[in-house]
Amino acid sequence: MNIGLLGGTFDPVHRGHLAVARAAARKFRLEQVLFVPSSVPPHRQGRPLAPYHHRFAMLTLALQRKRSFVPSSLEAPPEPGAPAFSCGPGFSYSIDTVRALKRHLGKNDKLFFLIGIDAFMDIAKWHESEALLREVDFIVASRPEFSLGDIGKALPQSLRPDLKTIRTFRNAATTLPLGATAVHLLDDVNVRISASQVRAAARRGASLGRLVDPAVAEYIRKTHLYRPSSEGQQARRKFRAL
Predict the structure, then answer these.
(1) Which of 50, 117, 120, 175 has a C-alpha 20 to 30 A away from that of 141?
(2) CA-CA distance, 148 to 153, in Å (whole number)?
């Protein structure tokens, strides 16, 4: 069974996330894609995140009619008194998530890590990046201006092909072998939506219909989740009390 793992803040989950999952599922015959919202992502410390329970709730709403797409609480904040699922001060590291998930997979299961090209270009800076790339195949949702050579240059030094090898990659090549694993380019995703676009539209009170699932749009509207005003804070408190 081929299984995809798509992690991120999902603040909020939007149509671009779903498009990547659908394209990867088609191309790599993924029978299941797990959507794993981060509790405290180490690479996103510049901006406060919406509370985890809101992000997970929106993810559940977006995936409720998609049987092969499953929301996962692998990186949920620990219950009071329970050990944190991380290697740092509350951070959620991908290497921990991958290893924990692989312990529960069958011997015939294969795990693929789904990621966008912008995030992958910083992969060498990730916690235990070399170990992560040796643990699991990566599927990188790319854009026309990126090639397999760019993927090679972004790898940690110990896994990076030499320049001569990089120059030999044909434009049509979409897989870079890394021993027992590989990095695959996914170049047929054309949805250009970002979570920052959704948050900005929500702050303005604009329609979110083309950006997120209708159920997610309704959730954001009811909770005033991305409205910074006191009105939004009051609405969120009222929503939690229901």
Answers:
(1) 50
(2) 9
